[in-house]
Amino acid sequence: MTSTVPNAVQHTDAAEPITMFGPDFPYAYDDFLAHPAGLGQIPATGHGTEVAVIGGGLSGIVAAYELMKMGLKPVVYEADQIGGRLRTVGFDGCDPDLTAEMGAMRFPPSSTALQHYIDLVGLETKPFPNPLSPATPSTVVDLKGESHYARTIDDLPQVYRDVMDAWNRCLEEGADFSDMNRAMRERDVPRIREIWARLVEKLDNQTFYGFLCDSDAFKSFRHREIFGQVGFGTGGWDTDFPNSILEILRVVYTEADDHHRGIVGGSQQLPLRLWDREPQKIVHWPLGTSLSSLHGGEPRPAVTRMNRTAGNRITITDATGDIRTYPAAIFTGQSWLLLSKVDCDDALFPIDHWTAMERTHYMESSKLFVPVDRPFWLDEDESTGRDTMSMTLTDRMTRGTYLLDDGPDRPAVICLSYTWCDDSLKWLPLSPAERMDVMLKSLGEIYPDVDIRKHVIGNPVTVSWENEPYFMGAFKANLPGHYRYQRRLFTHFMQDRLPADRRGLFLAGDDISWTAGWAEGAVQTALNAVWGVMHQFGGATDPTNPGPGDVFDDIAPVELPED
User: Fold this and answer.
1) What percent of the chain has pLDDT over 70?
2) Distance CA 163, CA 194 (A)
């Protein structure tokens, strides 16, 4: 059992593995990527044509890499550093192999399109130590001043198993969990669409918390409170309670919160290696070409202005004042940047798409890491026989504390706190040192005999994504009633449906995706945008490997009425 309150249905190793390919748009991106015919071709007359890619996060780098392979010349603009929210940092004065993941740090096996690129660049993964996972030696759940030590959920008091059962029953009764999980595992697209269409219509206006309250299984406030504080998979989910239940169902249906793995050496290696990679199958460009070589080693700087010019082209001004005009562009940054950081022409998008971007709801998120001399938490407490310290879930300020090591005799890292939303905002005014002091005080109340500070060998590193100027939040999370907005943004790559004077600029990135908060969504929307650019240039996919736009009419997301 891999989570505090696991998904309703447990599967054997022989079961067909699930993929994060639905339920809104059940397209097999992993099959598309694996097909020997490739992602498509454009006419030779388009070879070498520049296409702007704004944002050097995972979505932007994947899009640029695939456009380059087709023979186009992507021009990547990046305001900060390649990687976006795949941001791996070191600790000053410490071993350079000692790193902290400030953004994405754990990835489910259902992220099959993401895994394609992890494998492509030769990265290794290892199990991530989530609460009560097999990779976690022990977990402490500390609520209302009472701590419970556990290696499995069976070690926790009965009330936690009652909460697990309540969540399982809630999913079955309110969301047809077993039926949908089976359909997704078998890639039964008609059945997925049938179930999901009914649920979208029924639940679009419902919050996560309201969904729980409507279930007989969660009549008990105490059970709802424990579920919010301890949750399932990665821990407590009460910060998600105001969000649309549809967002949560996408996570549990696709097992996005289960069986996580981390990237050895840090997740930022993925976009950095793609940036430097020289593909063996490439059109127009000579072998040895990479995104790095096309850019002279560095991407273009931040975009400060975008507008439409004659011929329905996209004109971009960057931070140096350089002005360039393109027949097509892909914007992969968080959409709020188009409302604040980038001076935009209203003609860039239809008004309904502007409205959808303005309504995007972002989750705040904070982390703080400290380097320590060794994984001292594995020392046995002589009086109890337990680990000295454990992965910790609590209702105190720290909420989630993760213990990360590469062996007993090597320096290690503690993520002292990982929080979201209101819990994240509580840290915002504090300096890194002040944050660490408060966190150590909270943990000292749980582990009064453990001197964490004496093991610290360097200064803490921290992030509050809501305070990052090029992000303004960690990831989008739809509120009730936002389904229609998300559909507009996700389907934007199908530009034949747009007015002719609103085409040529494509949206991609995590907050455009249906699976927000997961790198898989960044990859999927990048591939959608690549298909859109290819289509605009008069290109096409191989008939044996249809792209997301080719099959769109068969699997388009449910469309709810506007009136």
Assistant:
1) 97
2) 29
Cα 530 to its chain centre, rounded Å, is 20
At 234, is the secondary structure helix, strand, or coil?
coil
Report which of 500, 530, 525, 499 is spatially closest to residue 512, judged by C-alpha positions: 525
Instruction: Report the distance separating Cα 172 and Cα 376, nearest Å.
Output: 42
Is the CB of residue 327 less than 8 Å from the CB of residue 342? no
Q: What is the pLDDT of residue 237?
A: 85
What is the rounded CA–CA span in Å between residue 283 and residue 68?
8
How many C-beta atoms lie closer than 10 Å to residue 503's C-beta?
A: 15
DSSP string, 463-531: EEGGG-TTTSSSEE-PPTT-HHHHHHHHGGG-GGGS-GGG-SEEE-SGGGSSSTTSHHHHHHHHHHHHH
Do residues 40 and 297 make contact, with C-beta atoms less than 8 angstroms apart?
no
SS3 call for 262: strand
Which three-class secondary structure string do you get for 95-155? CCCCEEECCCCCECCCCHHHHHHHHHCCCCEEECCCCCCCCCCCEEEEECCEEEEECCHHH
Tens digits of residue pLDDT in 497-549: 999 999 999 999 999 999 888 999 999 999 999 999 999 999 999 999 999 99
Q: Which residues contact 130 (CB under 8 A, 6 or more apart)?
A: 2, 3, 106, 136, 233, 234, 235, 260, 391
The pLDDT tens digits of the residues spanning 279-312 come to 999 999 999 999 999 999 999 999 999 999 999 9
Instruction: Pinpoint the alpha helices (H) of 137-220.
Output: 158-175, 177-185, 189-203, 208-213
